[in-house]
Amino acid sequence: MKKFAGLFVLLLLVAGSAVAQDAPSQDSPSQSTSSSSSSQTTPDENQKPEKKTSSLFSPKYEISVGYDHRSFYVTGYPKIGMNGWVGSFDYNWKQWLGFEAEAQGLYKTITSQAAATETPSLYTAMAGPQIFPFRHHKVTPFGHFLYGEGYYRDAFGPYGGVGSAVNTYFSHAWEGGGGLDVHIKPHWSVRGMFDYGSTHFTASGSSSSGSSAGQGGYRFSIGMVYYFGER
Predict the structure, then answer these.
(1) What is the pTM of this model?
(2) pLDDT score at 230
(3) I need a surface site. Which of 120, 124, 187, 193 has the fewest CB within 10 A?
């Protein structure tokens, strides 16, 4: 978690620097006087003053889709890496505060010569606040915390004359973290995101055991964001 906190602070510093570069600079009085006298002695009607514009924009809605990778770990079992998709919808209530709904699907195929092929899959649907501390610029860091439900499906076989079997489980789920949006053209940004999340499915893989433990893991995703509407 310390590594994640340090990474997020670094993202904030980068974005803060980008925002500072967008701010229009003001000339000192001496420079203003000098330029004024210069313009009086050598007027140039064809030369127009340079205008500096800010990169700040304020979308009302955001839709994002992308590739998702998550490590899935249960105490006492090997850690597996799952790949899949993620999609989200965000309503920006304020320039710095939005409400996000997210869905993701993750998949894995585990093969072994001594056991049946296993194909676990994980789905979550969560919602929560999303914060943009510097609002929206060319480089926009954000943080979020989401809470909702998870669904886990684990299919086995067939193997050695034994038929296939499927176990399914439901659990609450949460994740927290943040990311960075890089504005590349009107209405579009590239998004990178890093989170830590957890579910609480049955630990032993058998619903009859009655025991459970959290399945924590880090999640990385990259994709595209589309903006529409203005505040």
Answers:
(1) 0.71
(2) 85
(3) 187
